[in-house]
Amino acid sequence: VQLQACGGGLVQAWGSLRLSCAASGRPPSTYATGWFRQAPGKQRELVAAIFSGGSTNYADSVKGRFTISRDNAENMVYLQMNSLKPDDTAVYYCAATPRVALSALAVDSSYDYWGQGTLVTVSS
After folding, report:
1. pLDDT digit string (tens) for the chain, length 124 residues
2. d(Cα 39, Cα 71) in Å, to the nearest integer?
3. DSSP code per residue over 76-122
4. Separation in Å, CA 122 to CA 24, 39, 80, 111
5. DSSP letter at 60?
6. Which of 49, 63, 67, 92 has the most crowded CB, counting CB atoms within 10 A?
């Protein structure tokens, strides 16, 4: 599986961005995909994930603002980010794994495949 993330940029607080993760090699419906982020000086953290069956999981900090979705026909996974805050500034990565337990969802070593990061900068 190869992943390529894009869609980052500079946006003002309360604005929106949509990140895209293009997948090749296997359909994204056959694995779990997560969006992680890493801010300067901080550990990488899970933002949102979508299981192969379609169920989703979100970090508390983004619930109600971010939405993860998948287009199986286009082999794409998206992260719609609304009401962005300066604290959302980070490099965002998409990652995938054929199988992951809910308890390990937020552990980045659970993921076998990673895309390159895309930088999101939210100005106040």
Report:
1. 899 999 999 999 999 999 999 998 888 888 999 999 999 999 999 999 999 999 999 999 999 999 999 999 999 999 999 999 999 999 999 999 998 888 888 999 999 999 999 999 999 9
2. 28
3. EEEEEE-S--GGG-EEEEEEEES---GGGTT-GGG-SEEPPPEEEEE
4. 30, 12, 14, 27
5. G
6. 49
Q: How far apart are CA 90 and CA 97, in angstroms?
A: 22
SS3 29: helix
| Radius of gyration of the chain from its Cα atoms, rounded to whole angstroms | 13
Nearest in space to 35 (alpha carbons), one of 69, 60, 10, 64: 69
113: nearest Cα among 89, 96, 91: 96
